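[STRUCTURE TOKENS]
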Amino acid sequence: MKAYVYGADGARISDVAQPKPKGTQVLVRVRACGLNRADTGMRKGHAHGAAGGAGTVLGMEWAGEVAELGPDAKGLEVGDRIMGSGSAAFAEYTLADHGRLFRAPSNMNFEEAATLPVALATMHNAVVTVGGVQPGQSVLIQGASSGVGLMAMQIATLKGARLVIGSSTDATRRGRLKEYGADLAVDSSDPKWVDEVLKATNGEGVDLIVDQVSGKVASQNLAATKVKGRIVNVGRLGGTHADFNFDLHAARRIDYVGVTFRTRTIEEVREIFEEVRKDIWGAVESRKLQLPIDRVFAFADIDQAFEHMEANKHLGKIVVTM
């Protein structure tokens, strides 16, 4: 089968053996894949958790059809339309654990379905399960113009947040954040953004920050969070190291929690997917929660898809069709 593989000379489409499902695995005939920021690093040879390096089939998000079931896979039949996340997505066939996928709604095509699994699982966990958002609270999403950021704002709105603030350093994308739930859009590269947040919250700060940027905004986040507020760190788009105001952290008694899928067990991941199904799946099926597709590329043009992502001018998801 054809797959996009990282090798000694970089990533390229290659012929590899078709995998065989074992245990609770499902063999998926991939029809479309969503690109994610982590894919760009792995395409350059960087590890993402335990995955990466020479011989790695890249990709982590897909939609397609069940082609074969492992002996312990349950709840599915061959031919079912599904979407999910895991490793080795950029291939004609991939394997997925039976608990790490969703049924693709009948009112979505494969391209649309491929945009959702990572964003839904990541941001329901960050905003709801870990972030504990409650009706009437205020929420700031750092890095809101990314696919997962757009989903985070929509989930916060769905759960009754009174004020949703999104950040983006790009003026064009910042101007579109209100289409996806933002009541206020701020530029996190402008030192005055904290003042804007405080003004919008009567000087108190927000109840919850979901931070995909970290780095230079880490201490600014502390100043923008209310006393006994919460910060959930889900990424490091702005860098992995920076100054941190420990005194301000203590003074404002902020709960600061880090989350990632890289160190979660498959049992933990299954639970996250189940929480999405139980809590917000109706909003997915009704298309209340959805993501814009910026561009669609054919698999043969996957290098161009990555170049488009690295240009960092897109809003929403970049999709590759198989």
About this structure: The domain at 2-115+291-321 is CATH 3.90.180.10 (Quinone Oxidoreductase; Chain A, domain 1). The longest strand covers residues 25-34.
